[in-house]
Specification:
The protein has 2 domains: 4-101, Serine-tRNA synthetase, tRNA binding domain (Helix Hairpins); 117-420, Bira Bifunctional Protein, Domain 2 (BirA Bifunctional Protein, domain 2, 2-Layer Sandwich). Helix content is 40%, strand content 20%. It has helices at 4-9, 11-20, 27-64, 69-101, 138-145, 150-157, 166-185, 200-205, 230-234, 292-309, 356-361, 386-396, and strands at 121-126, 148-149, 163-164, 190-191, 197-198, 217-218, 224-225, 241-243, 249-258, 277-287, 314-318, 330-338, 343-352, 364-366, 374-375, 377-385, 404-405, 419-420. An 8-stranded mixed sheet has the order 1-11-12-13-16-10-9-4. A hairpin with a 5-residue loop joins strand 6 and strand 7.
Length: 426
């Protein structure tokens, strides 16, 4: 959510931020609604003061036995007008909130200008891509191993689901546990096991609603399946005032994520790159505004460490204005090398949202001894996507005989297993 006071004071700056996002100016429409809402509020306040004055006259007349009928009619008329203005103020306020809620976060000053993913800027690379002769894609490897079953998953649930078996299912579990262990024991994150269903208010707080409702799954009870643990983790501070000394809050969780993928028709239909259900380890930080840029760099480094420990080649890019997510003011994507596709694919996205989500959540902090409060800054990042990490391991550690070498750091989670081989499913 945007700060209406800043729009009043710096309308041109606000419109320029929207322009960088490829959107038309909106300050004129916003300020017109804001003026109408504030005018209704002012008129209500004036009428309330007038009603109070008349009520005092009525009391004085009654005490002397005077006739108050005319004054009572005047009070009744004022009450009717106040009710009309109250409804008008609510209507203008709802329109204003709907308009503000539909607009994305303003990009940070150092975010590169661009239209789409082709304008993103590569910052660094890590690891050398292995030299394969005719590398196979993950779904070919998984099916030949007998451990990745798309047909049965489709029978159970339809398209964009995967059933993993035996060592491959265990490898997925091992990856998630490894990530959580690193984030909690080395990087200071507190592990959370959050609800997987949340209310409208919680989805609104992190900006999944109202704009992206079609990309979500909603239950018949009205709750939403979480598209990422970012949603419940960030909203832990919804409607809260946190002491400054308690910041930063660093939270992590491994959860299933559920996405309708309504905007991804026809993309990555083979394999398990784009699924309705997948596991992800999420990192969330709640920080003071002056710490958010440093926290963004730190969070990205945490995700990179996971991939370095797994010996997976990757590159880190900064997204341009046209490719950033709705709530982000700056985003680093980490893309892992997929030899089967001969390209890099996103495996982590680390975003600084500034106070954009905090305003929607009314999440604030207070300095010790101060009465006033400020909005916190929120950050989120994948630490990392477990399913995509699994298929990256399969493709990068594939062997000529179709087996898959298990990275050293994961073997303790796999009872010492060093390799997943064809014919071994236990």
């Amino acid at each position: 959510m945007h700060d209406i006071r800043l729009i009043r004071e710096q309308a041109a700056v606000f419109d320029q931020a929207l322009k960088r996002r490829g959107l038309p100016a909106a300050s004129q429409e916003i300020l017109a609604l804001d003026t109408e809402r504030r005018t209704a509020q002012t008129s209500m306040q004036e009428l309330q003061a007038q009603r109070n004055d008349v009520s005092k006259k009525i009391g004085a007349l009654k005490s002397t036995g005077g006739n108050v009928d005319t004054l009572m009619q005047e009070v009744a008329a004022i009450k009717t007008k106040i009710a009309e203005l109250d409804e008008l103020e609510k209507q203008h306020g709802a329109k204003l909130e709907a308009l503000l809620s539909s607009l994305p976060n303003a990009p940070a000053h150092d975010v590169p200008q661009g239209k789409d993913e082709h304008d993103n800027k590569e910052l660094r690379r890590s690891g050398a891509a292995a030299d394969f002769h005719n590398p196979r894609q993950h779904f070919e490897l998984g099916e030949d191993l007998g451990l990745m079953d798309f047909a049965t998953a489709a029978k159970l649930s339809g398209a964009r689901f995967t059933l993993l078996k035996g060592p491959l299912a265990r490898l997925e579990r091992a990856l998630g546990n490894f990530m959580l262990d690193v984030h909690t024991s080395e990087f200071g994150y507190t592990e959370i096991s959050p609800p997987l269903m949340v209310t409208d208010k919680i989805m609104y707080g992190t900006a999944q609603l109202p704009k992206f409702a079609e990309d979500q799954f909603k239950t018949t009870s009205g709750l939403w399946l979480i598209p990422t643990a970012e949603v419940p983790l960030t909203n832990i501070v919804n409607d809260s005032i946190i002491n400054y000394d308690a910041l930063p809050l660093r939270l992590t969780a491994k959860t299933p994520c559920f996405r309708a993928e309504a905007g991804a028709a026809g993309k990555d239909t083979r394999g398990m790159l784009r699924q309705h259900q997948f596991y992800k380890v999420e990192m969330v930080s709640i920080v003071a505004p002056d710490k958010s840029e440093a926290e963004h760099e730190r969070m990205t480094e945490c995700a990179e460490t996971i991939l370095n420990r797994l010996q997976l080649p990757f590159r880190t890019i900064v997204l341009c204005t046209g490719d950033m997510g709705f709530a982000a003011r700056k985003t680093y994507d980490i893309e892992v090398w997929m030899p089967g596709q001969n390209t890099y694919r996103e495996i982590s996205s680390c975003s600084n949202c500034g106070d954009f989500q905090a305003r929607r959540m009314n999440a604030r902090f207070r300095m010790l001894g101060e009465k006033s409060t400020e909005f916190v800054h929120t950050l989120n990042g994948s630490g990392v996507a477990v399913g995509r990490c699994l298929i990256a391991l399969m493709e990068n550690f594939q062997q000529p005989d179709g087996s898959i070498i298990i990275p050293t750091v994961l073997r303790k989670y796999m009872d010492g297993m060093e390799r997943i081989e064809i014919g071994k499913v236990s």
